[in-house]
Structure to design on (177 residues):
């Protein structure tokens, strides 16, 4: 495996993520930008991991049990996620679904999504104090634009290696300082 970085690709992604800071300008202080942006990156990365895990597990289960209905298959995969995956989310929400649902329930649905993660992820979210930040984003009408920006961002391990993700994270920390 090569450890070479595609620096232009990573710089473009860092620049795209940095646009979040521009969306926060005027409603958040500059030192608060990282409180919004870094946790949503982590959440999206974890979501990408879960989506990939679910897809792989669905194919595996379907191959072994082809007579299952789609509903039974989804329920079985969700159970496997909860009991065997390194982390899980007991809800059916994704950032995309939260964003595309009724915007009057955006904060409530996003909180439900965040609250659905397993304890190990919840500890990370708690460490960021992100629940308080969600309230600030909603109060300042910044929750929808941020969710819209990240709902499909390619941050999964199949798109960015851990080394590349580390580069992005460090680049953002540099910009925050």
């Amino acid at each position: 495996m090569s450890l070479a970085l595609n620096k232009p690709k990573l710089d473009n992604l860092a620049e795209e993520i940095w646009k979040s800071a521009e969306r926060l300008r005027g409603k958040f202080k500059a030192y608060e930008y990282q409180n919004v942006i870094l946790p949503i990156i982590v959440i999206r990365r974890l979501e990408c991991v879960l989506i990939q895990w679910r897809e792989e597990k669905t194919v595996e289960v379907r191959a072994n049990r082809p007579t299952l209905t789609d509903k039974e298959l989804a329920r079985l995969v969700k159970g496997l996620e909860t009991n065997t995956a390194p982390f899980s989310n007991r809800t059916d929400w994704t950032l995309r679904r939260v964003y595309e649902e009724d915007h009057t329930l955006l904060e409530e649905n996003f909180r439900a999504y965040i609250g659905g993660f397993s304890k190990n992820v919840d500890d990370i979210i708690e460490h960021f104090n992100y629940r308080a930040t969600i309230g600030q984003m909603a109060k300042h009408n910044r929750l929808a634009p941020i969710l819209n920006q990240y709902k499909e961002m390619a941050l999964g391990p199949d798109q960015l290696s851990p080394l590349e993700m580390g580069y992005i994270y460090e680049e953002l920390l540099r910009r925050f300082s």
Q: What stands out?
A: DSSP finds nine helices and no strands in the chain. The CA atoms of residues 98 and 105 lie 9 Å apart. The longest helix spans residues 33-64.
